[in-house]
Design goal:
The protein has a five-stranded mixed sheet with strand order 2-1-3-11-6. Strands 8-9-7-10 form a four-stranded mixed sheet, sandwiched between helices. It contains 18 helices and eleven strands. The protein is globular, with a radius of gyration of 22 Å. A hairpin with a 2-residue loop joins strand 4 (about 145) and strand 5 (about 145-150). Helix 1 packs antiparallel against helix 13, helix 8 (about 210-220) crosses helix 9 (about 240-255) and helix 8 packs across helix 17. The chain folds into two domains: about 1-155 and about 315-380, D-Maltodextrin-Binding Protein, domain 2 (3-Layer(aba) Sandwich), CATH 3.40.190.10; about 160-315 and about 390-430, Periplasmic binding protein-like II (D-Maltodextrin-Binding Protein, domain 2). It has helices at about 1-20, 60-70, 85-95, 110-115, 135-140, 165-170, 180-190, 210-220, 240-255, 265-275, 285-290, 330-340, 340-350, 360, 365-370, 375-385, 395-410, 415-430; strands spanning about 45-50, 75-80, 105-110, 145, 145-150, 150-155, 160, 200, 275-280, 300, 315-320. It is of the alpha/beta class.
């Protein structure tokens, strides 16, 4: 591990010396949807990088490398809570007060439109970032009204982690492609002495952004949509009901662990690593951590299952954006280039299992040999369906969480929850 980090940093140092990090320049203007060109990036000195708490331990070493190379332009890492809703709330509070405390923001990919439309982040110069080397669905998450307002730092696609050792012992030929196959595999594993007391499946079902993700994946994996191609809400459909019915029915029949109603990403990861789960839906970051746990060498990954075949992940990931109210924006732009470079993306892939935005890394034979999940992850990202990319995203995700949670708790039927959700989304989005 240490050798890989050193090698990655050496590559970054070489690129920095060669001029990878350049002083940014652009036409004058401020951030926001009405901006006709990139902002003017001026000022050098200390800045902050604001992101979720780093559970992988890989971010600070990268920042330390930058700080060593730029002693007069140091970056301070401000770590926010792990759940996305709290991160978004704190970033918005900072923006609404026009505070310069936050400089470079690590945004969930679905926040770009909201932050850009409110003029909380600056429009960026597209030509200064290697967007053409990135996967197209990932690159598109950084744009708003054809302008670049963020730069992809990592992508994310949901995958199915499964106990390959137990499936093999139970005579299950391979990972399930459908929800019915998943339930059948669990029944067989639970008959084993090793499977006694294990829960079948878990995702993230606490009332937060993770529930929006898991709900959307179930709906899309059953052939439904949350919004159509034009962004119009269309969730009150038979297909969407099949997706939500899978979740509600699985809680009732014990397929989904009862305690998963309280799970966020880390809770579910720990349940899988401790040996309490046969199947887990989670992001790629879990892979490297699970390899250091008691299930190391006993699990593999596969595409998420769906109603009639492989399902569809929600498109996740994080983009770097520049606060409109920040100081030292020239330094900030240089740091963004550094942090979103292919070399740093490779480092985060190797040491934290983060999905890189760069297409080439998924097809590198040496990396695929070292990380056999890469082909699965690439397909997950390419097949992923974005959550609604709307300016009112906060209200949209709150409505989804409220209605989905009511259905999972038995407070409403799936049909009623979706009918109410359709009305809520139409009201929020003015459709």
């Amino acid at each position: 591990m240490k050798t890989r980090v050193t090698r990655a940093f050496s590559s970054v140092a070489a690129l920095t010396a060669a001029g990878l990090v350049l002083t940014a320049c652009g036409s004058s203007g401020d951030g926001g949807s009405e901006q006709t060109g990139p902002a003017s990036f001026e000022g050098r000195g200390p800045i902050t990088y604001v992101a979720a708490k780093d559970t992988t331990g890989t971010v600070q070493p990268v920042i330390d490398r930058w700080n060593k190379l730029h002693p007069d332009e140091k970056v301070t890492f401000i770590q926010l809570p792990t759940d996305a809703d709290s991160q978004r709330q704190q970033m918005i509070q900072n923006a609404e007060t026009k505070s310069d405390a936050y400089t470079v923001l690590s945004l969930d990919v679905v926040w770009t439109s909201e932050f850009a439309a409110h003029r909380w982040i600056d429009r960026l110069p597209e030509k200064e970032f290697p967007l053409q080397k990135m996967l197209k669905p990932v690159m598109e998450t950084a744009k708003y009204r054809d302008g670049l307002y963020a730069v992809p730092a990592s992508s994310d696609g949901g995958m199915l982690y499964y106990r390959s050792d137990l499936l093999k012992k139970a005579g299950v030929a391979g990972p399930p492609k459908t929800w019915a196959e998943l339930k059948d595999a669990c029944a067989k594993v639970r008959k084993l002495p090793e499977g006694k007391g294990m829960s079948c499946y878990a995702g993230q079902f606490q009332k937060y952004e993770g529930l929006t993700v898991n709900f959307a994946e179930a709906v899309h994996s059953a052939g439904g949509v949350v919004t159509d191609a034009n962004g119009t809400p269309d969730v009150d459909t038979p297909a969407a009901r099949k997706g939500l019915d899978f979740l509600t029915g699985s809680f009732r029949d014990g397929t989904i662990a009862k305690e998963a109603i309280t799970y966020q990403e880390e809770d579910s990861r720990q349940a899988f690593q401790s040996g309490r789960l046969i199947f887990l839906r989670n992001w790629p970051y879990v892979y490297s951590l699970a390899q250091k746990s008691k299930v190391a060498g006993k699990f593999e990954v596969a595409p998420l299952p769906g109603l009639n075949g492989p399902g569809a992940s929600s498109l996740g990931g994080h983009n770097l954006a520049l606060s409109s109210f920040a100081k030292n924006k020239a330094t900030a732009l240089d740091f963004m280039k550094f942090f979103t470079s292919e070399q740093i993306a490779k480092h985060f892939l190797q040491d934290a299992s983060l999905a890189p935005p760069y297409a080439r890394l998924y097809d590198d034979p040496a990396l695929v040999k070292q990380y056999p999940y890469l082909p699965v992850l690439k397909q997950s990202v390419l097949r992923a369906v974005p959550r609604p990319r709307v300016v009112q995203y906060g209200d949209v995700t709150s409505a989804i969480q409220r209605e989905a949670y009511a259905a999972l708790n038995g407070g409403k039927s799936s049909a009623q929850a979706l009918t109410d959700l359709q009305k809520d989304l139409q009201k929020v989005m003015g459709r």
